[in-house]
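QA checklist item 7 of 12: single-chain prediction sanity check.
[x] sequence parsed
[x] length recorded as 102
[x] structure emitted
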Amino acid sequence: MALGNEDVAEAKTEESVRILNRLARIEGQVRGLQRMIEEGKDCEQILAQLAAVKSALDRVGTHLISHHMKECLQDEAGVELDPATVEKAFDIFFKYVQCMRS
């Protein structure tokens, strides 16, 4: 079952809203990090919060990459791809990428 233009536009809008919500949460984390530094909090606490912010940004980046890749695959194939097969391929890819970061 192929998506119509309105369905695609709505999906992109919903996706944008999800990404913007994630970024707003990260913005709040960064503000909290700034407060921690201003208040002279313990270095270990600050570094833990910094790691959380970095991880959250990495997750947004990974989400954006995977979403864009799915769109490219869909457009290139010209047919609806099996979502389970695509998800399995992305899971394998991201496991490999995580191994490279370690």
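[x] summary fact logged: The chain has a mean pLDDT of 82.
[ ] second reviewer sign-off
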